[in-house]
């Protein structure tokens, strides 16, 4: 929603703060409010509150701490309306406390490896939003905060401190409140003098005394044994202060009193170290901490790089000063660049509008019409609730399918199905599915703005129209309630006029984006991929989703029961081994059983103790031979299989078929992904997992399923790209590729190569195609790192062209900023020049991986296009059902077996002309498992 913001009073520092503070709360001549944030404390809290595996970029950069920190900042700026803000950060060197007590903070758990690289990113964000980052050598962030709080108090400011460090409680006064984290990121408890007194039984000025007695484990400051907060508070309240308590220590009876007397030196040391410095030289005053103007372009660039969704950006912008005067709501449409002349078509009016505004002469490929669909789609079907068309010049129409007469319907069908009237749309496949359910074809689409943006920046996670409009058009458009629509302040979305405007703006944005993204693609060499591969593939994928694949529901239910029984048996066996019942799904209970009761070797230390993940359990089983880790792994495997089968059962449609949804814009390498359900993730490495594939069967009216996949396609692409003669020769010979490679590396005759040697070289070859390091190879093969390194050296000594190619890929990518596939698909890797070694190493592995994996993705997509076209042109009833990585599954119609098998093998084998043949393996059967080869 576009809203008007009042211009801040430039003569008042207090009124120049965060967006809302300029007109309420802390501004407008009222008392200034200083917000101080403990940077590392908040960042750590965000890190552990949000799952690290769910927040990360396609280049491997973890982002959960940055995302959580930004979310907390938004809440603080919105709710507290500060006029002045600063973030205090710890530095890595020792502090004055280490000089007195060398063991200060010793024994802390290792910082998670995903955390450190997020600190400079968070500091960058603070700088971009106009907040000062402050730190001081020899001091902690607490000392910086204490100094600033002291400054703020002397300047007559209200002070707020956001920190999870209880030492800050000693700073609490009537004018200084600590916002202390609760159970969630959004839960901040206001620690006022009354709240501290109620919680700890002492006043804030005596909290340091209490902490000295109790100690602080996180700082490695041992307290008085057996003395907790309640006892310490009782003593302090009785005697008035720690000094008086110590003076009367002889009066304390019992063991607690003796412990106090025995540990007086620790208590006095703790009290000295707990005291926060209030005189740190910072080079700023409290008045200097007025929030500056946000660098909007910089924030956009950072959020794009971190692949954050638009909703966080919207919330952040709502509380920042950007220095940009925002337009009135009434003028928003024109000032945002959308001068829309909107017609809400009543019954019988759409046909006339299309004749007047959407003729072939008025809509061209250089200036296509923007099309937006309101409705739902997925799993091979959809529904249109409304649609909007916006043509060059600004004329736009909104139509409700339920309000159209026969002439309107005929005219709309003609427009949509006319390939000579170019159109741009966001999420082309969804529109195809939704329109198709109404009997309308969609042709002439020259741009899918989501696909085009994906080809421009494949490393992004999401391609929302809101984000794209902001980035490429410089226009602020807000998502509707479901995140699928864009809206201006032009009426309620519940009212027809509001809905019409929403969709018209979406159509206009799509129209304008098409031109901008087309220019970007031209600069990046991706135009032919959009028009020659990705857009045509949308039609093929939509057909596959509509058709689906037949499923044997009864067999799936049988498997579900079997896996559930196996999981229960594993639980019973685990209980028998331990001798009591416990929850196999509770990491805390597993730690207690494994490491305390059974005394098994400790695994990797984590925040909550010691890890009990699958790798750790496998290690425990191998190291100890104990039965429990084996049963725990078995339980997890069977539970995962049961969950997979349950998910498949839920997605079987009324037609007895499963209709997955394919995504073209998820994997940065260009590979397709599958969701609802994920049919590319059906287990195939174990016999029990492969049994699930038996549930996918030939449908009624068809004879068999045919599976066709590429043999060793990654290695064939490596041979092509590296031009290594020995690799090319091995493929062209027709013999066992891996055995020949092993013979050359180990200096053996091919006949003398055993299974172990062949397996090592196979892992070696594929590992190089995936950017595997020597350490990764050692882990995969279960050998020492030195042996893996020697194996790599021997491999490169024999196949020097591979080594040279891999080196050149990284060097070239570092120079130009991207890698390319054989068809010109680019993968941009800015972290190749990062100062952060972890990010740079990850980018280098991606640079090695992307050309090979991306080329394989290109080839299978071209193969799908060629197979589908050949089936159609040949008049065959057989059809492509699924694509799973390098494999196609085809349903063969009666009497077409031989012709279709030959057709598929030929079209897949000629999808691209490599220096080595594209090997295609074909199999047939009544179900997916039996059709394997």
TrEMBL record:
Compositional bias per record (Low complexity), positions renumbered to this chain: 12-23
Positions of the 3'-5' exonuclease domain: 341-522
Keywords in alphabetical order: DNA damage, DNA repair, DNA replication, DNA-binding, DNA-directed DNA polymerase, Exonuclease, Hydrolase, Nuclease, Nucleotidyltransferase, Transferase
Catalytic activity field: DNA(n) + a 2'-deoxyribonucleoside 5'-triphosphate = DNA(n+1) + diphosphate
CDD domains per UniProt: DNA_pol_A_pol_I_C (cd08637), DNA_polA_I_Bacillus_like_exo (cd06140), H3TH_53EXO (cd09898), PIN_53EXO (cd09859)
Family (UniProt): Belongs to the DNA polymerase type-A family.
Protein name listed in UniProt: DNA polymerase I
Organism: Nocardiopsis aegyptia
The organism's taxonomic lineage, starting at the top: Bacteria, Bacillati, Actinomycetota, Actinomycetes, Streptosporangiales
């Amino acid at each position: 929603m576009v809203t008007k913001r009042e211009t801040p009073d430039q003569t008042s520092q207090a009124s120049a703060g965060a967006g809302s503070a300029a007109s309420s709360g802390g501004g407008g001549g009222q008392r200034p409010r200083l917000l101080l944030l403990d940077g590392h404390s908040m960042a750590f809290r965000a890190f552990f509150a949000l799952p690290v595996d769910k927040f990360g970029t396609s280049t491997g950069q973890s982002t959960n701490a940055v995302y959580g920190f930004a979310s907390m900042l938004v809440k603080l700026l919105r709710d507290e309306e500060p006029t002045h803000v600063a973030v205090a950060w710890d530095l890595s060197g020792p502090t004055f406390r280490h000089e007195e007590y060398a063991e200060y903070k010793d024994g802390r758990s290792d910082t998670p490896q995903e955390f450190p690289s997020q600190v400079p990113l968070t500091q960058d964000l603070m700088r971009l939003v106009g907040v000062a980052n402050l730190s001081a050598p020899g001091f902690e962030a607490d000392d910086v905060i204490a100094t600033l709080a002291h400054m703020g108090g002397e300047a007559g400011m209200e002070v707020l401190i956001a920190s999870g460090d209880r030492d800050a409680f000693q700073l609490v006064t009537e004018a200084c409140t600590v916002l202390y984290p609760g159970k969630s990121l959004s839960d901040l408890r206001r620690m006022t003098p009354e709240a501290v007194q109620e919680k700890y039984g002492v006043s804030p000025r005596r909290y340091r005394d209490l902490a000295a007695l109790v100690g602080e484990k996180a700082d490695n400051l041992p307290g008085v044994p057996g003395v907790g907060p309640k006892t310490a508070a009782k003593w302090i309240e009785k005697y008035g202060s720690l000094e008086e308590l110590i003076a009367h220590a002889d009066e304390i009876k019992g063991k607690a009193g003796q412990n106090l007397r025995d540990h007086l030196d620790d208590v006095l040391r703790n009290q000295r170290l707990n005291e926060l410095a209030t005189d740190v030289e910072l080079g700023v005053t409290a008045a200097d901490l007025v929030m500056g103007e946000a660098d909007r372009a910089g924030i956009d660039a950072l959020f794009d790089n971190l692949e954050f969704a638009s909703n966080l950006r919207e919330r952040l912008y709502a509380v920042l000063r950007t220095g940009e005067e925002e337009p009135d709501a009434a003028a928003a449409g024109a000032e945002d660049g959308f001068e829309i002349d909107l017609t809400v078509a009543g019954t019988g009016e759409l046909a006339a509008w299309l004749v007047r505004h959407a003729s072939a002469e008025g809509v061209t490929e250089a200036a296509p019409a923007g099309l937006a669909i309101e409705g739902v789609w997925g799993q091979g079907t959809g529904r249109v609730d409304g649609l909007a068309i916006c043509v060059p010049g600004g004329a736009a129409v909104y139509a409700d399918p339920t309000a159209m007469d026969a002439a309107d319907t005929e005219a709309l069908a003609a427009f949509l199905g006319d390939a000579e009237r170019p159109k741009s749309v966001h999420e082309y496949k969804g529109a195809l599915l939704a329109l198709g359910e109404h009997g309308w074809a969609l042709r002439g689409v020259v741009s899918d703005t989501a696909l085009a943006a994906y080809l421009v920046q494949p490393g992004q996670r999401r391609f929302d129209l809101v984000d794209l409009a902001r980035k490429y058009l410089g226009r602020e458009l807000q998502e509707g309630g479901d995140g699928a629509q864009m809206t201006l302040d032009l009426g309620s979305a519940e009212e027809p006029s509001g809905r019409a405007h929403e969709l018209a703006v979406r159509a206009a944005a799509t129209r304008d984006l098409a031109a901008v993204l087309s220019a970007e693609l031209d600069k990046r060499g991706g135009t032919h991929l959009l028009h020659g591969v990705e857009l045509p593939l949308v039609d093929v994928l939509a057909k596959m989703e509509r058709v689906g694949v037949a499923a044997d529901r009864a067999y799936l239910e049988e498997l579900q029961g079997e896996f559930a029984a196996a999981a229960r048996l594993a639980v019973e066996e685990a209980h028998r081994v331990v001798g009591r019942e416990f929850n196999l799904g509770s990491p805390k209970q597993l730690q207690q059983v494994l490491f305390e009761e059974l005394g098994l070797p400790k695994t990797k230390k984590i925040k909550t103790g010691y890890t009990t993940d699958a790798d750790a359990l496998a290690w425990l089983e191998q190291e100890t031979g104990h039965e429990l880790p084996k049963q725990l792994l078995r339980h997890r495997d069977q539970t995962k299989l049961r969950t997979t089968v349950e998910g498949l059962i839920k997605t079987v449609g009324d037609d007895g078929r499963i209709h997955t949804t394919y995504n073209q814009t998820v994997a940065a390498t260009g590979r397709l992904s599958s969701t609802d359900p994920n049919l590319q993730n059906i287990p195939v490495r174990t016999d029990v997992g492969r049994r699930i594939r038996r549930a996918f069967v030939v449908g009624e009216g068809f004879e068999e399923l045919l599976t066709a996949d590429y043999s060793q396609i990654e290695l064939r692409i490596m041979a092509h790209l590296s031009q290594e003669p020995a690799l090319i020769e091995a493929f062209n010979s027709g013999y066992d590729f891996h055995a020949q490679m092993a013979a050359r590396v180990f200096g053996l005759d091919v006949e003398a190569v055993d299974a172990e040697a062949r397996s090592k070289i196979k892992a070696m070859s594929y590992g190089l195609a995936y950017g595997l390091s020597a350490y990764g190879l050692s882990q995969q093969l279960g050998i020492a790192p030195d042996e893996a390194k020697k194996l790599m050296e021997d491999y490169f000594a024999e196949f020097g062209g591979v080594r040279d190619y891999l080196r050149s890929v990284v060097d070239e990518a570092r120079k130009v900023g991207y890698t390319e596939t054989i068809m010109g698909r680019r993968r941009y890797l800015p972290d190749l020049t990062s100062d952060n070694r972890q990010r740079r190493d990850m980018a280098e592995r991606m640079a090695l991986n992307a050309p090979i994996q991306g080329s394989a993705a290109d080839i299978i997509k071209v193969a799908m296009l060629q197979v589908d076209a050949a089936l159609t042109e040949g008049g065959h009833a057989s059809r492509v059902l699924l694509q799973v990585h390098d494999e196609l599954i085809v349903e063969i119609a009666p009497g077409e077996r031989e012709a279709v098998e030959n057709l598929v093998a030929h079209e897949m084998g000629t999808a691209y002309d490599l220096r080595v043949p594209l090997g295609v393996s074909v199999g047939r059967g009544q179900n997916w498992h039996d059709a394997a080869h």
